[in-house]
Amino acid sequence: MSHTRADLEIAAFAVDEVVEGTLTGWDGTTLLVSSPQLAVGAGEPALAEATVEVVRPGDRVRITNVLDAVVPDVRADDSAASFPGVLGGTWDDTAHPRIHRLNGVAVLPVCDWEGAGLVGPEEFPPSYVDMAGPAQDRSPWGSTVNVVLTCAPARGAAVADVDAAIRRSALELARTLAATTLDATPTDVRRVGALPDADPDLPAVCAIVQVASEGPLTDTFFDGDDLRDLMPRMVDPAWLTAGRLTNGAYDWPGVRNTTANYQDLSLVRALDRAHGQTLRFAGLILAPGYLDTAEAKRRGAEASAALAAELGAAGAICTTFSSGNSHTDTMLTVRALESRGIVTTALVCETNGGLTDHVPEADCLVSTGNEDELVPAWTPDRIVGGGDGDAGRTIAMVHYLGSCVETGDGPWTAVPV
Amino acid sequence: MTVVHYLNQFFAGLGGEEAADHETVRFDGPHGPGKALTAAGLPIDVTVACGDDRFALHEADCLVTLLAWIEEAGADVVVCGPSFGSGRYGYACGVLARELGRRGTPVVAAMTPDSPGVLASEGAAYIVPTTGNVAGMRDAVPVVASLASRLASGAVVGSPDEEGYLPRGLRANVRSEQLGAERALDLLLAKLNGELRTEIAPPTDRVAPPDPLGDPAAARVALVTEAGCVPQGNPDRLPTRHTNIWLRYPIGDRAELGPEDYLSVHAGFDTTEANRDPDRLVPLDAARALAEAGRIGRVHDEFFTTTGVDTPVAVSTRMGQEIGAELRNAGVDAVILTGT
Lengths: 417, 340
What we know:
Largest interface: A-B, 66 and 49 residues
Strand content of chain A: 25-35%
Largest sheet of chain A: 6 strands, mixed
Number of strands of chain B: 13
CATH topology of the largest domain in chain B: Rossmann fold
CATH class of the largest domain in chain B: Alpha Beta
Number of strands of chain A: 25
Structural class of chain A: alpha/beta
CATH architecture of the largest domain in chain B: 3-Layer(aba) Sandwich
Order of helices and strands of chain B: EEHEHHEHEHEHHEHEEEEHHEHE
Oligomer: heterodimer
Largest sheet of chain B: 6 strands, mixed
Low-confidence stretches of chain B: none
Structural class of chain B: alpha/beta
Strand content of chain B: 15-25%
């Protein structure tokens, strides 16, 4: 199986400051944000309103009901094709796209599903980002300037329509912010295209990135289509960088793969760097997790391992999506890979009681942290996103967006005490 | 810094086995090994003690008294023991540590790794391993004193390997200098080169299958589920996910569980089909058929239920132990456990 990659250029813009004003634009290294201008209006009938607010690291703010995080990106060569399939436009591997990307800024869509009566009590766990206090460093978005898009569903709108409108609005906002740089000079430019040939004696290593798509509010999307029928398949890492894979799953936030994770996977960066030095990056497999039946889990695991074998992989790194059920998918995938002689490492989060599942073949694991550990209580001055935000109460790590993410993008790990 | 020290009757100088029923007592200053701790840099302000048998037979009452004294003293840290290989003394140290831990008071204990106090403490204490007898006092005292001093001052202590205490079965979050992806790559390359490293040791609590039933036709069989099956309306408010409770409901002489009376509140799967026939959650119809055919003795007259979704393994373990104890006390011989 050959491994080809699209040629993609990322022009990064370091944002030193975000200033709220009457116009949205770019001034040197300052992003100007006009909240009224960016608010979502009548174009999205499933939303009663969607307002924009900027919060910064150090603000005594807890953002609640956070759904996703998006890195502001725009296709400089074809703005309409940014986040293809969701905002419109299609992907063309031969187009040599150039993406303008804002660093240090994120778009965080927020919606109180329960408050809007669209889900039942406790159906979705609280989802927080703290901009100060003891949990500021738990979520990566405690240290970015966040443009928060607070969405209120229109009365009577179907939940799937509201969700689609929120995802569209968040990506549109991300595109609009990044588009302010279209005539500016980037801080840094890097290519993520085809890799050079590497010494064939180096071990071939593939990444297996697990995603899940279970239904409305628990879906992952590729080019705007849900992945409910996904079978393991090869994908070009550049496709993820270009925003083709987006998140619409709002379950446990600490172990949620956000769109921002897909846009800049640390695992792909690490494998790219190591390519030709210590290994050959053999490719990336997108694999389903959180599957419903034992047979589906076994079939998915075997198919991932078979693909890895076709790639000639001597080694594989498996990521995990969410916790609980999907850990069985990860463990079965590790077993299937090892049974084919493919040396495997997997990333999983832990609980206070250890792992949800484990097979003896999983003898080389990375811990992405203990999701049950309590973070000391903190009382913010302000809640952005609705509800009381558990102010003044201890909160489990798993409630902080991306705190224990199992894609390899986080710094947290758990150690025995 | 206020330090309180717990001892049994022997180490408190109250007597040997003949004083094992000695009531709880409180002294100012160090007693027995407390003097060695003081000499090692951990001045003992208050000593509390209890006879081993007294604690074992009147645990709740003894705890009330001991905890009140410790709270009154304003303890910054409590030292229990060393109890070495003593089972009763170790157990008392472990239980006291557990209760203090729940109240947020740091505890350091010392005992053999196989002491019942280790399990009883439920990870609340920093337990320094000792030999089985008092000959290990010299080695244990400086480690206990050092740990307790730092805990009392709020300092961070190192890992079990660094500090010499027994792993508490807890996993604490720390920030790594490397992202997870970089660590995964390092581990994989090491494994490819024959060096096996992991950040998570394999679990050691695998459950061995029980022996087969001697005579199924005489067995009382209970139905247990994690499928979230409850009476319509969920009258006891079983959480749909992340639960920390289990419930039980009488079956009486029902032949089956009908959809008009029962449903699943489980948040981890599509319950549409199951709610059309709750017997697929709790297979009462099938169990009744087996009993009628004489293949099992009888069906236990209540079923047990919880929601197994997003529940920490430690909570699941505790609930399983509690349900198991109830079933054993009720004379149940076997369980049909339905999972989702």
